[in-house]
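Field log, afternoon session.

UNIT: design team B
ACTIVITY: writing a sequence onto a fixed backbone
BACKBONE:
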């Protein structure tokens, strides 16, 4: 067990990567063997991630230096050699890793039945595993160039899966928009990396953070990184790709795209707090992120209200919910420059970070319920649905739970994180809290419309075969539902044991530098 924990940061990336290479070979032998293999790989990744996260939350961060004689050295030897890869899993990295592997496992289970009508499933599951590799790589790397590399792995796999149903024209269109935006974002990240490397001859993020002088080029690099990762996480006004890509992707992949967007959100937070940290003009950057959050919340929810395509409606709500995370962490940055950080600032960060995992659970669930509806009735148009509660009782219950959670209704998980955000944002300005609460009310109104259109009323002709979706799809939805309920019933435990260590890991730049590159 000690050996597994020692090498867990590398194994968590290597395991799905090896699985991605083997999946096409196993697919040639047996489709059932391929599906079983993918589930075993993801289940093993989940168990290993849980073990590593527990160790990180109880014992402290893990450092893993690739190729070093002692890969777990506190101050890695590569701090002065920027070409060596280092992985760093602190509270925030472990928190994000748990989100990525949990959503991926639920999506894979759901896909067993949801995708069984499709050809090319070997390619599908290979790309799914590569998405996991990209997300975990972004969340674990302590090297700025490898952040770019894993971002590209994630983007290419995601684009291919968005276009998986290539026989639908809108799927190809959505994938093209996604890859164009991803390429633009990747070029911005690469340019920022070049600017920093050209000045300091370093790629190690801890080493860079210890010598950063906040020159004009450093500010340009920061602007490029914020713009790139804000665009990749779907923040307004760089959200144009989100509804087009989320709507046309298979439902299980849409749930994973939510987690992938949050990996970019993590990168944004890591750059702001751990790389630039106290060299930032915290007030200015905090206000910028708060503004992005407010725009995303309000524009996302108002664009969702008139939609008649159920997945497009949910896609705009994904943009809106990203705004809550940006608002919480933006308030935390703003208060970091003021005396209120130790109380309200850290609480704001906890609210924003808590909302990341809550959003992954309930938004992932809602996209899976939308996929279940499409699986049975063959349409995403709310005007062509009705009476589905008669035949899809479990899906109806899952939808209700997800809808109440995203609207912040107690005792589900969305309420706990939103309450933390309301309370801390009020400290900066009451208007922030009022807007956030108004968005929650509009969100509830939007999902009441969906529930009435899709599930209520008499059973209509042509609404499927009168049976519930296959069991594996219900299990996938059930996994996320269990997390929603548990996190809603025991929010204090979640905040104390998962969220608070993650927030502290972001706020404590000195510890990040000391662990990752303190020798420079």
């Amino acid at each position: 067990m000690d050996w597994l924990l020692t090498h867990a940061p590398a194994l968590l990336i290597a395991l799905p990567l090896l699985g991605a290479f083997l999946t096409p070979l196993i697919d040639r032998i047996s489709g059932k063997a391929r599906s079983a293999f993918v589930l075993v790989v993801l289940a093993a990744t989940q168990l290993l991630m849980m073990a590593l996260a527990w160790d990180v939350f109880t014992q402290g961060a893990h450092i893993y230096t690739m190729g070093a004689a002692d890969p777990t050295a506190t101050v890695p030897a590569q701090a002065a050699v920027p070409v060596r890869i280092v992985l760093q899993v602190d509270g925030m990295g472990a928190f994000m890793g748990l989100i990525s592997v949990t959503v991926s496992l639920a999506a894979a289970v759901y896909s067993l039945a949801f995708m069984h009508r499709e050809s090319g499933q070997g390619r599908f599951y290979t790309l799914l595993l590569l998405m996991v590799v990209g997300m975990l790589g972004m969340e674990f790397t302590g090297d700025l160039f490898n952040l770019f590399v894993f971002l590209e792995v994630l983007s290419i796999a995601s684009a291919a899966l968005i276009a998986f149903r290539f026989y639908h024209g809108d799927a190809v269109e959505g994938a093209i928009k996604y890859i164009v935006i991803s390429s633009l974002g990747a070029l911005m990240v690469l340019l920022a990396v070049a600017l920093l490397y050209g000045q300091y001859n370093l790629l190690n993020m801890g080493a860079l953070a210890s010598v950063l002088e906040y020159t004009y080029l450093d500010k340009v690099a920061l602007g490029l990184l914020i713009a790139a990762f804000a665009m990749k996480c779907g923040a307004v006004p760089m959200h144009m790709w989100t509804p087009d890509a989320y709507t046309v992707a298979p439902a299980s992949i849409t749930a994973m795209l939510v987690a992938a967007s949050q990996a970019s959100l993590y990168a944004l937070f890591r750059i702001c707090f751990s790389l630039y940290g106290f060299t930032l003009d915290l007030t200015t950057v905090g206000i910028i992120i708060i503004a992005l959050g407010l725009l995303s919340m309000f524009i996302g929810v108002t664009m969702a209200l008139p939609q008649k395509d159920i997945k497009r409606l949910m896609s705009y709500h994904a943009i809106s919910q990203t705004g809550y995370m940006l608002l919480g962490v933006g308030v935390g940055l703003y208060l970091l420059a003021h005396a209120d950080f130790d109380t309200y600032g850290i609480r704001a960060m906890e609210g924003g970070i808590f909302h990341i995992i809550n959003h992954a659970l309930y938004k992932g669930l809602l996209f899976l319920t939308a996929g279940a509806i499409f699986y049975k009735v063959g349409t995403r148009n709310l005007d062509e649905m009705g009476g589905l509660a008669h035949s899809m009782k479990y899906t109806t219950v899952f939808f209700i739970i997800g809808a109440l959670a995203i609207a912040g209704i107690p005792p589900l998980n969305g309420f706990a994180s939103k309450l933390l955000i309301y309370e801390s944002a009020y400290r900066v300005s009451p208007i922030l809290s009022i807007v956030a609460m108004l968005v929650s009310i509009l969100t509830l109104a939007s999902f009441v419309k969906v529930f009435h259109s899709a599930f209520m009323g008499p059973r209509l002709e042509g609404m499927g075969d009168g049976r519930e979706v296959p069991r594996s799809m219900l299990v996938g939805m059930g996994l996320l539902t269990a997390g929603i309920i548990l996190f809603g019933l025991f929010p204090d435990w979640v905040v104390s044991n998962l969220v608070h260590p993650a927030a502290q890991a972001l706020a404590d730049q000195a510890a990040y530098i000391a662990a990752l590159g303190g020798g420079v």
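LOG NOTE: The first strand starts at residue 62 and ends at 65.
NEXT ACTIVITY: expression trials, pending approval
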